[in-house]
Design brief:
The complex is a heterodimer of chains A (780) and B (169).
Chain A (H helix, E strand, L loop, with lengths): L2 E6 L2 E6 L4 H7 L23 E4 L6 E2 L10 E3 L3 H14 L17 H9 L16 E2 L4 E3 L9 H9 L5 E4 L6 E4 L12 H5 L5 E3 L12 E6 L8 E9 L2 E8 L13 H5 L14 E3 L5 E3 L2 H19 L4 E4 L6 H14 L5 E2 L6 H8 L11 H4 L2 E5 L3 H4 L1 H14 L2 E6 L11 E4 L5 H8 L10 H12 L3 E5 L5 H12 L4 E5 L6 H6 L6 E2 L3 E2 L6 H4 L11 H9 L5 E5 L3 H4 L11 E6 L11 E4 L8 E4 L4 E5 L4 E2 L5 H11 L4 H4 L21 H10 L11 H11 L7 H5 L4 E2 L28 H4 L3 H11 L9
Parallel strand pairs in A: 1-5, 16-17, 16-25, 18-19, 18-21, 19-20, 21-22, 25-26, 26-27
Antiparallel strand pairs in A: 1-2, 3-4, 3-5, 6-7, 7-10, 8-9, 11-12, 12-13, 13-30, 14-15, 14-27, 23-24, 28-29, 29-31
Helix pairs in contact in A: 2-3, 7-20, 8-20, 8-23, 9-15, 13-15
Chain B lengths: L10 H10 L10 H12 L4 H11 L3 H8 L13 E6 L2 H5 L2 H12 L5 E2 L5 E6 L11 E3 L2 E3 L4 H12 L8
Helix pairs in contact in B: 2-3, 3-4
The chains are: A alpha/beta (780), B alpha+beta (169).
């Protein structure tokens, strides 16, 4: 829309016509206070805090509902306005308990800030405050009624934002109260958005309440470890006896692709980090068959010696390696490099949840065709094929819903189930579970094999008229189906694609070559190109995939198996006795089904306890920062390097540290040297990194960027916390048509997260609360 | 957003609702009239009424309750056969509406929003019923009795008890 010019507090401002005055002012650095106004949600004008004086208008007006107009003259601060806001605060504080010293929100409460600013310290009210007992609405949501200021933010974010509509306002006037849909409990997706968005401490979180004061925490912006969406999360951490514990997860600074959204897993399911049954000491199986705690030195020595012995006597082909979908790119890369150059084997695989290799093959040479998670927030049209994003990709579903609501994006959904996103869809097509390939053929104009109806014809017609489209497809698509989908899509103008896989770094694991036939960047083993020189001892024999490795183990042909952050025994239903003749090394946090039969167990750190990069399923590369710490555990990165060292390999060949660039530990910057984040930024800007340690993941990231062209993104922006789209078009790959994709979808729901999710008490209690009657809450 | 297969309402009311939801630009505009008509037929807004109205309009039961709880004339518990609503707003108050209310309480042996054990009467103190000219006034179900004194009130209650009252809903 055309720009209009108006005056605010004597300053001439310009903004597009139709912009809300409050937004226009905020953009110009003029802060107008508001409780009920929240960007992206519908307007409420309930709190009256944002009142301003408009010239020629008799009464004060709410800036949150006034669009800017040409020639408008606005005053945002004056004695009159101050008096009005003060009076509002006085009313709000009329029944607000002044329990700020124990309130979770104390210190980051908007009501507190406003009272501080406008100083409603005295009140004309002498009435006794009406106390109401706090209610527990779910394992994670508590409601303290008297603290509520009725801004309706929670009601709107739950309804409009989440499309759950679990909160409402009942009664009238002074007895108005926020109510959950189950009368005394919530029946919802437990995302916690209502708690997050609450300007005061009325809604509090089961994991965080009464645990700390906001200023006692350190805040670390990192990436969620659960699904493949790669949500940015800010973890609030605090020192404890054995390290540093996470007590809160949110994204209030809206820094990532997910805005302020987090689902239940991102917001609460970090409690596995502090479980008391977490393994914190290396375990080695003794001759009597029992696992015993030993020193790190003994465990590493034992494992290294055995691996070396098996490699030297039976050859690398007798060793298998299984990687993780939740370790960093650097760890995944390092693991395959360790397997291929130290263990001399290509027997390496991971739990694949999407066929990224076929996707890369289909898109090679096609620049700008991969969709970032961000694209779903702005694309004018979206086609979702398969997958139930609400359950499996909550941030994707959030972005799609926001896009449909705010930009009227057109959503097309084809699924075998009537998924929840049907409600946002302009057009929905229900197809048979095995009908996805036929659907793509049908959309491309090939009618055979698909029962076309009027609905499907209209669906196809509307789709073909779209001038710009983003296509997301689930793991229903593999191999050749992906190729034909991409072929179909490229026939339309401006199409971008996204393959939906399940875990935090599933994409990274595939990109980094945790596969028997593909090297990092999907370089085929058969035509190893520059890897031939980089990895001098690269074995040429093709490796075994996950299933073949277990077959080999059963046949007695697998001498050793090295499992990093994975639970294949449970996931693939392996009979543990199949591994009785295999020397099994497991790196994990917990005694999983796989760890239980291991010969050596190394206690490992999780993604919240390490630094590095991760790639979400859309190919967005992000920086993960170390937030928590647990005494006794080590990162997978360190463990791989130490193991290589114990096998007699040169760590310097594995991790290129201390070469090429000068190091700088801050000594050149004097007073600023203590600030780690600025240090990192400064180093990046000066093309320097302090790679003095063989455990520095960025030394490996250097190598990744050098050898995998699609990962050669701006390091400066990455270190600044931005997500950078990797370049799939730079992948050069010809896949063997007979290649097995071996995709095993995880089928996680909102409340599960593979083996990891089983160790989150919060996820468990939420699932239990949904099957049992909720506990008695205070009668009101 | 549909007509349910089975309904708890009479065929006539169900048909009326089928039409009602089509009369407005958005279906939820029919919510308040539906609540009032249901209350007339069922006697109060039961959980079943909430559920069915939600289905008919295509909103959540919570949405229905949000509106339902806003209006004091919508009730979620059964009342007596004759619901005695005594006005105590300004005009009636000046003409001793509270006297009438106290008298009723004493005569019927029940308080505000209570029901007699035989289920015949219930009593409610209400806001203005628009009969200020003839204060103090009482509304029993949909019928008005005005210019009341305790004696006249006794007569009205006696008539209802003896089955001589007006039998409108």
């Amino acid at each position: 829309m055309a720009d209009v010019t108006f005056t605010v507090d004597g300053k001439k401002l310009t903004a597009p016509a139709g912009t809300l005055l409050i937004d226009a002012c905020r953009k110009a650095g003029i802060e107008i206070p508001a409780f009920c106004y929240y960007p992206g949600l519908s307007l409420q004008a309930a709190c009256r805090m944002c009142v301003v004086r408009l010239e020629k208008v008799p009464k004060l007006q709410t800036a949150c509902t006034t669009p800017v107009a040409e020639g408008m003259v606005v005053t945002t601060e004056s004695d009159e306005i101050k008096q009005s806001r003060k009076a509002i605060l006085e009313l709000l504080l009329g029944n607000h308990p002044l329990d700020c010293p124990v309130c979770d929100a104390g210190g980051e409460c908007e009501l507190q800030d406003m009272t501080f600013k406008y100083g409603a310290a005295e009140s004309k009210y002498v009435e006794i405050k009406q106390h109401r007992e706090e209610q527990q609405w779910s394992p994670v949501v508590f409601f303290d009624r008297p603290r509520c200021i009725l801004c309706y933010r929670c009601v709107r974010v739950c309804g409009e934002g989440m499309d759950v509509w679990a909160l409402g306002v009942q009664n009238r006037g002074v007895s108005s109260v926020i109510s959950p849909n189950g009368e005394d409990h919530l029946d919802c997706e437990e995302c916690g958005m209502c708690i997050d968005i609450c300007p005061v401490g009325a809604l509090t979180s089961g994991t965080y309440r009464y645990k700390t004061r906001p200023w006692e925490m350190n805040h670390v912006a990192t990436v969620c470890t659960h699904c493949g969406d790669g949500c940015k999360t800010t973890l609030g951490v605090r020192s404890v006896d054995d390290g540093s514990e996470i007590i809160r997860g949110d994204n209030r600074d809206k820094s990532g692709m997910n805005g302020d959204f987090l689902c239940i897993k991102g917001r609460y399911a970090f409690d596995f980090t502090t479980r008391e049954d977490r393994i914190t000491k290396p375990l080695v199986r003794q001759p009597n068959g029992q696992l015993a705690e030993v020193s790190w030195e003994q465990a590493l020595e034992h494992a290294g010696m055995k691996l070396r012995e098996i490699r030297d006597t039976r050859g690398g082909s007798a060793i298998g390696v299984i990687g993780s979908t939740r370790t960093t790119n650097e760890e995944a890369y390092l693991l395959q490099k360790f397997a291929r150059t130290v263990l001399n084997t290509n027997n390496i695989d991971h739990h694949r949840t999407a066929d990224y290799a076929s996707f890369a093959a289909a898109l090679q040479g096609k620049a700008g065709r991969t969709a970032s998670l961000r694209d779903f927030l702005t694309a004018p049209a979206i086609l979702l094929l398969g997958n139930d994003a609400t359950e499996q990709h909550p941030a994707l579903a959030w972005n799609i819903r926001s896009n449909v609501r705010q930009n009227r994006a057109r959503l097309y959904v084809a699924n075998h189930a009537d998924i929840k996103l049907h409600r946002q869809a302009k057009s929905f097509l229900q197809i048979p579970q095995d009908g996805y390939a036929a659907l793509v053929q049908y959309l491309a104009g090939n009618e055979a094999g698909f029962d076309g109806t009027e609905i499907s014809a209209a669906f196809r017609e509307a789709l073909r008229k779209e001038e710009s489209l983003v296509i997301a497809f689930g793991s229903e698509f593999r191999g050749r189906d992906i190729q034909s989908l991409v072929d179909f899509g490229l026939g339309l103008p401006n199409v971008k694609f996204a393959a939906l896989g399940d875990y935090a770094n599933s994409r990274g694991a595939a990109d980094m070559g945790l596969m028997p036939d593909l090297l990092p960047g999907y370089v085929p083993l058969a035509a190893a190109k520059h890897f031939g020189e980089e990895y001098p001892s690269l074995p040429s024999a093709p490796g075994l995939d996950m299933l073949q490795m277990f077959d080999a183990a059963e046949a007695g042909n697998l001498g050793a198996l090295y499992v990093v952050g994975s639970n294949p025994v449970e996931r693939y239903g392996i009979d543990p006795t199949a591994l009785k003749n295999t020397f099994l090394i497991v790196q994990d946090m917990f005694m999983t089904e796989t760890a239980a039969v291991a010969d050596v167990i190394f206690p490992a750190a999780n993604l919240y306890e390490k630094s590095g990069t991760v790639t979400n399923t859309y190919g967005d590369l992000q920086l993960a920062k170390k937030a928590a710490d647990k005494a006794g555990v080590r990162t997978d990165f360190e463990l791989i390097v130490r193991l290589a060292d114990k096998m007699g390999a040169d760590p310097k060949k594995l991790v290129p540290f201390g070469r090429g660039v000068r190091a700088d530990m801050g000594q050149t910057r004097g007073a600023q040297s203590g600030e780690a984040d600025r240090h990192a930024v400064w180093l990046a800007a000066n093309n320097l990194e302090p790679k003095l340690s063989p455990f520095d993941p960025f030394a490996v990231f250097d190598e990744i960027q050098r050898l995998v062209p699609s990962y050669n993104v701006s390091r400066f922006e990455l270190l600044g916390g931005q997500d950078k789209q990797t370049r799939s078009d730079l992948v050069q790959i010809e896949l063997d048509p007979a290649r097995r994709d071996l995709v095993l979808p995880a089928n996680d729901t909102l409340f599960t997260s593979g083996t990891l999710g089983r160790y989150s008490r919060m996820l468990h209690s939420v699932m239990e609360s949904r099957t049992t009657k909720p506990a008695e809450t205070a009668a009101d | 957003m549909s007509t349910p297969a089975t309904t708890i309402f009479s065929p006539a009311l169900a048909a009326r609702f089928d039409k009602l939801v089509t009369l407005y630009p958005v279906r939820r505009s029919a919510l308040v009239p539906m609540l009032l008509y249901s209350q007339d037929e069922v006697g109060y807004i039961s959980d079943a009424v909430v559920e069915e109205i939600a289905v008919r309009i295509g909103i959540t039961p919570l949405d229905v309750r949000n509106v339902l709880s806003y209006y004091s004339m919508l009730r979620t518990k059964p009342v007596g056969k004759y619901n005695v609503q005594v006005c105590t707003n300004i005009s009636c108050m000046l003409k001793d509406g509270y006297g009438i209310l106290d008298h009723c309480k004493q005569r019927l042996g029940i308080g505000h929003k209570e029901v007699t054990p035989d289920g015949l009467f219930s009593l409610e103190e209400v806001e203005c019923i628009g009969a200020c000219c003839w204060a103090p006034a009482v509304q029993i179900n949909y019928d008005f009795y005005d210019d009341l004194t305790p004696e006249k009130m006794d007569k009205v209650l006696e008539d209802y008890r003896a089955g001589r009252g007006k039998e409108t809903l």
